[in-house]
Protein backbone atom coordinates (compact mmCIF):
# COMPACT_ATOMS: atom_id res chain seq x y z
CA UNK A 1 0.00 0.00 0.00
CA UNK A 2 1.27 3.46 -0.93
CA UNK A 3 0.71 6.40 1.43
CA UNK A 4 1.23 10.06 0.61
CA UNK A 5 1.48 12.89 3.17
CA UNK A 6 0.69 16.36 1.80
CA UNK A 7 1.26 19.88 3.16
CA UNK A 8 1.92 23.27 1.57
CA UNK A 9 5.70 23.49 1.18
CA UNK A 10 6.76 19.88 1.88
CA UNK A 11 9.50 21.15 4.19
CA UNK A 12 7.83 21.08 7.65
CA UNK A 13 4.68 19.05 8.34
CA UNK A 14 4.54 16.37 5.64
CA UNK A 15 8.27 15.47 5.85
CA UNK A 16 7.76 14.94 9.60
CA UNK A 17 4.61 12.90 8.92
CA UNK A 18 6.51 10.79 6.36
CA UNK A 19 9.40 10.18 8.77
CA UNK A 20 7.11 9.29 11.67
CA UNK A 21 4.83 7.06 9.59
CA UNK A 22 7.81 5.07 8.27
CA UNK A 23 8.66 4.10 11.86
CA UNK A 24 5.12 2.75 12.40
CA UNK A 25 4.70 0.58 9.29
CA UNK A 26 6.41 -2.48 7.85
CA UNK A 27 8.21 -2.60 4.50
CA UNK A 28 4.93 -3.65 2.84
CA UNK A 29 4.02 0.03 2.94
CA UNK A 30 5.58 2.77 0.84
CA UNK A 31 5.41 6.25 2.40
CA UNK A 32 6.24 9.53 0.65
CA UNK A 33 5.41 13.23 1.05
CA UNK A 34 4.78 16.20 -1.25
CA UNK A 35 3.66 19.83 -1.17
CA UNK A 36 0.97 21.71 -3.04
CA UNK A 37 3.43 24.49 -3.97
CA UNK A 38 6.74 24.12 -5.81
CA UNK A 39 8.48 27.03 -4.07
CA UNK A 40 10.79 24.72 -2.09
CA UNK A 41 11.29 22.06 -4.74
CA UNK A 42 14.59 20.20 -4.30
CA UNK A 43 15.19 21.56 -0.79
CA UNK A 44 15.78 19.42 2.28
CA UNK A 45 13.25 19.83 5.13
CA UNK A 46 13.37 22.96 7.30
CA UNK A 47 16.28 22.74 9.82
CA UNK A 48 13.81 22.93 12.71
CA UNK A 49 11.85 19.95 11.35
CA UNK A 50 15.09 17.98 10.91
CA UNK A 51 16.14 18.81 14.50
CA UNK A 52 12.72 17.98 15.97
CA UNK A 53 12.67 14.59 14.21
CA UNK A 54 16.28 13.94 15.29
CA UNK A 55 15.29 14.67 18.92
CA UNK A 56 12.97 11.67 18.56
CA UNK A 57 15.55 9.47 16.81
CA UNK A 58 14.14 9.95 13.30
CA UNK A 59 16.31 11.07 10.37
CA UNK A 60 14.40 13.13 7.79
CA UNK A 61 17.47 15.08 6.63
CA UNK A 62 17.75 13.32 3.27
CA UNK A 63 14.22 14.06 2.10
CA UNK A 64 13.72 16.54 -0.74
CA UNK A 65 10.68 18.73 -1.32
CA UNK A 66 8.62 18.15 -4.44
CA UNK A 67 5.19 19.31 -5.58
CA UNK A 68 2.30 16.88 -6.01
CA UNK A 69 1.66 15.58 -9.55
CA UNK A 70 -1.26 13.96 -11.37
CA UNK A 71 0.73 10.71 -11.31
CA UNK A 72 0.70 10.81 -7.48
CA UNK A 73 -3.10 10.96 -7.49
CA UNK A 74 -3.10 7.87 -9.68
CA UNK A 75 -0.36 5.89 -7.92
CA UNK A 76 -0.97 6.40 -4.20
CA UNK A 77 -3.68 4.51 -2.31
CA UNK A 78 -4.10 6.94 0.59
CA UNK A 79 -3.46 10.67 0.47
CA UNK A 80 -3.46 12.53 3.80
CA UNK A 81 -3.71 16.33 3.81
CA UNK A 82 -2.40 18.42 6.71
CA UNK A 83 -5.01 21.20 6.57
CA UNK A 84 -8.21 22.26 4.83
CA UNK A 85 -6.55 24.51 2.23
CA UNK A 86 -4.26 21.66 1.23
CA UNK A 87 -7.22 19.25 1.17
CA UNK A 88 -9.24 21.52 -1.11
CA UNK A 89 -6.28 22.05 -3.40
CA UNK A 90 -5.63 18.30 -3.71
CA UNK A 91 -9.34 17.48 -4.18
CA UNK A 92 -9.48 20.03 -7.01
CA UNK A 93 -6.71 18.12 -8.80
CA UNK A 94 -8.57 14.78 -8.62
CA UNK A 95 -9.77 13.53 -12.00
CA UNK A 96 -12.48 11.13 -10.84
CA UNK A 97 -14.34 9.70 -7.85
CA UNK A 98 -11.76 6.94 -7.35
CA UNK A 99 -9.05 9.57 -6.84
CA UNK A 100 -11.28 11.72 -4.62
CA UNK A 101 -11.92 8.70 -2.37
CA UNK A 102 -8.21 8.40 -1.61
CA UNK A 103 -7.94 11.93 -0.23
CA UNK A 104 -8.66 12.82 3.40
CA UNK A 105 -7.67 15.20 6.16
CA UNK A 106 -4.82 13.67 8.18
CA UNK A 107 -6.39 14.40 11.58
CA UNK A 108 -9.84 13.10 10.66
CA UNK A 109 -8.62 9.81 12.06
CA UNK A 110 -8.71 11.33 15.56
CA UNK A 111 -12.44 11.95 15.09
CA UNK A 112 -12.14 15.55 16.25
CA UNK A 113 -13.37 17.88 13.52
CA UNK A 114 -12.63 21.04 15.52
CA UNK A 115 -8.94 20.19 15.45
CA UNK A 116 -8.77 18.56 12.07
CA UNK A 117 -5.90 20.74 10.91
CA UNK A 118 -2.22 20.28 11.66
CA UNK A 119 -1.08 23.87 12.34
CA UNK A 120 1.69 25.21 10.14
CA UNK A 121 4.83 25.64 12.30
CA UNK A 122 6.76 27.44 9.53
CA UNK A 123 6.29 30.88 11.09
CA UNK A 124 6.66 29.54 14.64
CA UNK A 125 9.47 28.32 16.90
CA UNK A 126 10.90 24.97 18.05
CA UNK A 127 8.09 24.61 20.56
CA UNK A 128 5.57 24.76 17.70
CA UNK A 129 7.53 22.10 15.81
CA UNK A 130 7.49 19.83 18.87
CA UNK A 131 3.71 20.30 19.26
CA UNK A 132 3.24 19.44 15.59
CA UNK A 133 5.45 16.36 16.05
CA UNK A 134 3.26 15.15 18.93
CA UNK A 135 0.08 15.72 16.91
CA UNK A 136 1.53 13.90 13.89
CA UNK A 137 2.74 11.04 16.07
CA UNK A 138 -0.76 10.62 17.51
CA UNK A 139 -2.33 10.70 14.04
CA UNK A 140 0.23 8.30 12.60
CA UNK A 141 -0.41 5.82 15.40
CA UNK A 142 -4.13 5.83 14.60
CA UNK A 143 -3.65 5.65 10.83
CA UNK A 144 -1.08 2.84 11.14
CA UNK A 145 -3.51 0.90 13.33
CA UNK A 146 -6.31 1.46 10.82
CA UNK A 147 -4.24 0.48 7.79
CA UNK A 148 -2.71 -2.56 9.47
CA UNK A 149 -6.15 -3.79 10.51
CA UNK A 150 -7.50 -3.28 6.99
CA UNK A 151 -4.58 -5.00 5.28
CA UNK A 152 -4.79 -7.98 7.66
CA UNK A 153 -8.52 -8.50 7.25
P1 LIG B 1 4.77 23.14 5.41
O1 LIG B 1 5.18 24.62 5.92
O2 LIG B 1 3.59 23.32 4.48
O3 LIG B 1 4.41 22.43 6.65
O4 LIG B 1 5.99 22.60 4.69
C1 LIG B 1 5.39 25.69 5.05
C2 LIG B 1 6.55 25.76 4.34
C3 LIG B 1 6.77 26.86 3.51
C4 LIG B 1 5.85 27.86 3.42
C5 LIG B 1 4.67 27.77 4.12
C6 LIG B 1 4.44 26.69 4.94
N1 LIG B 1 6.09 28.99 2.60
O5 LIG B 1 5.24 29.89 2.56
O6 LIG B 1 7.13 29.04 1.93
Automatic annotation (TrEMBL):
Could you tell me the keywords of this UniProt record? Hydrolase, Protein phosphatase
EC number(s): the record gives 3.1.3.48
Top-level taxon:
Bacteria
Q: Which residues form the Phosphotyrosine protein phosphatase I domain?
A: 1-146
Protein name listed in UniProt:
protein-tyrosine-phosphatase
Q: Which organism is it from?
A: Chryseobacterium geocarposphaerae
Provide the GO MF annotations for this entry.
Answer: protein tyrosine phosphatase activity
**UniProt record similarity statement:** Belongs to the low molecular weight phosphotyrosine protein phosphatase family.
Q: Could you say which enzyme class this protein belongs to?
A: hydrolase
CDD domains for this protein:
LMWPTP (cd16343)
A Pfam family (short name) is LMWPc
Alphabetized SMART domains for the sequence:
LMWPc (SM00226)
Amino acid sequence: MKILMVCLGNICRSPLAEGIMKTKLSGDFFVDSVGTISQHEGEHPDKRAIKTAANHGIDISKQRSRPITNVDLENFDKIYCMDLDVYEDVISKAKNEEQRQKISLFLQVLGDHENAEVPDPYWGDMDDFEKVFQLLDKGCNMIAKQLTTVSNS
